[in-house]
Amino acid sequence: MDIDSFTESLQQEDLNETALRVLNLLFILNASATPLSTEQILQDSDLGYGSANRASDLKKFKRDREKLAEHGVSIVEVRPAGAKQTEESLWTIDRANTYATLGIITQKDADTLLRAVDECLARKEIPYRRALISIRHRLHALTHPLKQSDSDGADSRDADAHAAIGTAPSDRIADALWSAYTLKRKVRFAYRDARGRDTSRTMAIWGIFTQHGHSYYVGLDEQSGGVRTFRGDRITRVWRPSGNYTIPRWFNIHDYLFMPFDMAGGMTTAVSFRFPDGIGQAEIESLTKGRSALERRPDTGAWIWTVKVSDMRAAAQFALARAQMGMRPQSPKQLVDAWNTMIDKAVESHG
């Protein structure tokens, strides 16, 4: 049973505190890259738990799992290999027992579903495309069964590969974020940055783009109060969206795409630029689009912006074009040398 149909069935009931809590629990378990611990669930007030009475929250959690089971959603306890009995429980959706298998679908129904899926896939841009491709291959296997001699062939391997893609946690997280964006609902998610630091963010997604095989989400980040860009594969968990928003008219996704020094392929290198004390933080963040780390030196008051670049020469050009505001290359030596070379050539050309 999918989340949308389950939500509709619950919405026909009284959407009281229990129903909302059950919906929140289902959403976060479905849109999480890893199983959630008991404490992660019980301490989360956004889910509807997080009270001062832990015993009461445990009873609520148990009743909510039973409620989900009534609707065909099986929440199970899992333990990593070698885990001790005293270790904290982890919880996830038992997908094998929750979602329908092809064995209970008649061939006639499968053929009808196959035609419907093909109509959807014919459109240029649709959400859940990879999941639909997975469903299509499984339906095709039912309506066009392979001969025994073909059982180890490419079609079978291809179907298995697409099935694996369709059930990946990253796909479920991407679908949840896409839903929040299309509905214009604020969404809370857990994020692990490039340095391995975990934070919880609440965001109004204003735009989505892809670059170098990764998806990026741009919008108003409530924690910082500014427009930020987050990489999709670093989002590890998504809560059920809530709270409406409107994308401002001045927003243009092209202003928040990557900078010139991101365009080259290959390895990236961390570089640092320096801004003088007289430049305000807001002005620097407007220039850097809130990318990467911005720190202020307590001794000089100068700002140091550290960011990864793919093209060292383009990074030096980026700084040179903003030299009038005091932007200077800091490190590494390769960046400083590229900057000096450009200045020398400019001086020579103007004799």
UniProtKB/TrEMBL annotation:
Residue ranges the record marks as coiled coil: none
InterPro entries: CBASS_pafABC_assoc_protein, WYL_dom
Residues in WYL domain copies: 174-238
One protein family per Pfam: WYL
PANTHER family: PROTEIN PAFC, PTHR34580
Name the record gives this protein: WYL domain-containing protein
